[in-house]
Amino acid sequence: MQAEENKSYDDINVTPMVDLYLVLLLIFIIMTTASVQGLKVDLPKASKSPPIGESKVKAITVNNEGKVFLNTVPVSLPELETQLGQAKAANPDLPVIVKGDSRTQYQGIMDVLDVIGRVGISKVGLATQAPK
Predict the structure, then answer these.
(1) Torsions phi, psi for 13 (to 5 deg)
(2) Domain boundaries, the chain
(3) What string of pLDDT tens digits covers the 132 residues of the chain?
(4) Cβ-contact 100, 64 below 8 angstroms
(5) d(CA 106, CA 60)
(6) Which of 83, 113, 114, 88 is nearest to 99 (CA)?
(7) In this structure, are residues 105 and 66 in contact, taking their beta carbons and an 8 Å threshold?
(8) What are the DSSP calls for 87-103, one per residue?
(9) DSSP-assigned states of every residue in 2-18
(10) Burial of 89 (0-12, 13-18, 19+ CB in 10 A)
(11) What letter does residue 51 receive in the DSSP assignment?
(12) Which residues make beta-bridge pairs with 68?
C-alpha cells in the first residue's frame, strides 16, 4: 500500500486548464463584441440601377489647391451658388455629387456644402474611393 502512495504520476490532467482557457476565451469574445458596437442607425435603401442619368447630376469638385469646379468648369463660390440656384429652379430634385481631393483643406469642402445648403439642395452625395 505504501508503494502506491509514493508512486509519481506519469500524466497530467489538463481538463481544468482547458476549462479555464475556454472561460477566458468566452469572456474575451463577449468583451470584444461589446466594445465594437456603435450607434444603431436606419440606413437608406438603394436600388441596383441608378435612378438618374449622368447629365442631370451636377458634380462639384474641390482639388488639392482648394479650387472649385462645377462639371469640370472652374467657378467661384458665388458663381457656384448662382448656377446651382438656376439648376435647382429647373429641376427641384437636383442631385449633386461632391468630390474632394484627400489632400484638400476640410474648410473648402465645408464651404461647398454650405453653398449647397443655402440653395436648398437635399440630394447630396460625397464621392469616395474604395480602399485598396
Answers:
(1) -80, 110
(2) 54-126
(3) 555 666 676 777 888 888 999 999 998 888 777 665 555 656 566 656 555 444 578 888 888 888 888 888 888 889 988 988 888 888 888 898 888 877 777 788 888 889 888 888 888 888 777 676
(4) no
(5) 15
(6) 113
(7) yes
(8) HHHH-TT-EEEEEE-TT
(9) HHHHSPPPSS---HHHH
(10) exposed
(11) S
(12) 62, 75
What pLDDT shows up at residue 24? 92
Q: Determine the Cα–Cα distance for residues 83 and 93; give it in Å rounded to an integer.
A: 15
Which whole-number Å values give the CA distances from 19 to 14, 16, 24, 129, in the listed order? 9, 5, 9, 46
* Chain centre distance of CA 35: 19
Is the whole model's pTM more than 0.85, yes or no? no
Q: Under CATH, to which class is 54-126 assigned?
A: alpha beta
